[in-house]
Amino acid sequence: MDLSLAQSCVPSTFSPSLFGAEVLSLEANLVTNYSASVAEAFRYVAPAVTLDNVSFCNITIAYTHPGQNDHIVTEAWLPLDWNERFQAIGGGGWVAGRFFLTYGGMQGAIADGYATITTDAGLEDAQEPTPWALNSPGNVNLYNLQNTASVSLNDEAIIGKSLIKSFYGREPKYSYWNGCSNGGRQGLMIAQRYPDLYDGIAAGAPAVHWNELMPFSQWPQQLMNELGEYPYPCELDALSAAALAACDGLDGVVDGAVADQHACLAAFDPFSVVGKEVECAQTNGTRRAVSRAAAVVANATWHGHSAKKYYGGLVPGSDLTGILSIVQTSCNATGCVGVPSMLGGLWLQLFVAKDPAFDIGHLSREEFDGLVSSGRQQYASLVESADPDLRKFRDLGGKIVSFHGLADTVIPPGSTEEYYNAVAGVTPDIRDFFRYFEAPGLAHCFGGKSGQPNNLFQQLRDWVEEGTAPEKTPIKFNVGDNETQNRILCPYPQKAQYLASCGDAAMEKCWSCSGSENPAAAKRGEPRHLELR
């Protein structure tokens, strides 16, 4: 332990200055001999790690922007054994930071020697926005929304670097961002609006088109409400299984994962499954025919909202009924009811309608589409992180790595694909500073058949510090029966191809990246519009 640093872990060491803000309180506490095990799931792009007797200075700062009546808390951990680098950790869902996933990421960061930080954006640990969205019915708290959308991200970087300089006597050599989902959105927002804050950004499964994503996550529920029918999960599971069976081998490998969303949408017709009888756990194991309504809902979830602006829906074959699914129904032996999305339902209710009592369960299509349009008009400049002009970030030498699981059940992978293509349209040299990896079988940020790209953060660091761009990234792929294979992910638009002549799909060397490196070659033209039958 560096005793001089340990002795410096007192409030008087730190005097952060943030223009337009007033510090309300600052606490500094030395944490010694801290041990923990951090799962890969908490780190997104880095492997599992064990902390063993790590010591760090925990600094918690509360501040406000005078006149805005906000109260924001940032928390920094500064390890005594420092690697001279800074890694900020993003949030998830409605949460900006300072919750269990963020703390797992921070544990991983200090295990590797990084100084690290998180912010609650003034929302505390609210898992959903009801406590902070409205000042009163009809009046959105725009300061809170602005803080979580962007402002707190700039604040925490400035505060973090100030704390680092005060504690270690020097600035970090390199600064990084690491986040997934909302944390991925935060990373892209930083690159777009605050391009000088970080040298490298890891932005997994980003909620990039916020004003499209939110209503999309309510779209299956809206359609069920219009139909007046709510399919049993067993019907939706049968449709997912049929889609997987039809599309699994389209990439030349049968492995329980869909690797090409566009090819699968063209190859599989969900209405071909209507009438098929399946065993239904929700009706005590009796057999039930797959209804037309189930096919309509699945088809709509895969194709996206008919008023969409940017992208399609979930990849066919992904889980439509799991805990994070946007197609959830609650059932008993006599029938089912819909379960509104904690994302889209609350967004439309609190931020667009501005009324916690607003009934989202009885909207016409015209009313629903009107809310989508209204949300876009009101909030595009506030919360969107879809600006494709990253030239300032590029010119400052910044690098971005992103990934998106093709079995994501929350955020359509096509949204990241569309954003990457849009950036390429502005900067054709996109591969010089931005690489995106699609992961067949990976669920939302973690889970599913595919392992996370847990070498990608180190590859980002190598790119930033050594100039070595990631041409591929290794993963573990679960093929069943406790058997895993060593595979690769490739930078979009390339795809991993199995070399049959190599003879062993479990070996990384038997996989290579194929296809054009040019994103323009992968553009799909205009988004497909929903067809109901």
From TrEMBL:
Q: According to its UniProt record, what is one Pfam family this protein matches?
A: Tannase
The UniProt entry, under InterPro entries, shows: AB_hydrolase_fold, Tannase/feruloyl_esterase
Cleaved signal peptide residues: none
Please indicate which superkingdom the organism of origin belongs to. Eukaryota
Q: Which GO terms describe its molecular function?
A: feruloyl esterase activity; metal ion binding
Q: Which UniProt keywords apply?
A: Calcium, Disulfide bond, Hydrolase, Metal-binding, Serine esterase, Signal
Entry's family note = Belongs to the tannase family.
Q: What is this protein called?
A: Carboxylic ester hydrolase
